[in-house]
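2024-03-11 09:14:02 DEBUG pipeline.ingest accepted 1 chain
2024-03-11 09:14:02 DEBUG pipeline.ingest length=68
2024-03-11 09:14:03 DEBUG pipeline.predict start
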Amino acid sequence: MESSHKVKVLEVEKITHDVLAIKIEKPAGYTFIPGQATEVAINDKEWINKKRPFTFTNLPEMITLSLL
C-alpha cells in the first residue's frame, strides 16, 4: 500500500557531490523496518513527480527520520 506524507525538512547534509543525508519530521504512526527505503520528492510543482530513493539510517523508535 502506497501512502504519501508532507513533512518538514529539519536538516540536510551534503555527503558527496551526489549523496545527501536528510533529517525530517516523522509523521504520527509512521513505521518502517531497518534497512527499508522510501521515495522522497520535493513539494514543488516542478519536483513533486521526481521521486528519489532514500534509505532509513535511524532506528524506528526515534522521533525523527534520517535518510541517506
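2024-03-11 09:14:41 DEBUG pipeline.report The radius of gyration is 12 Å.
2024-03-11 09:14:41 DEBUG pipeline.predict end
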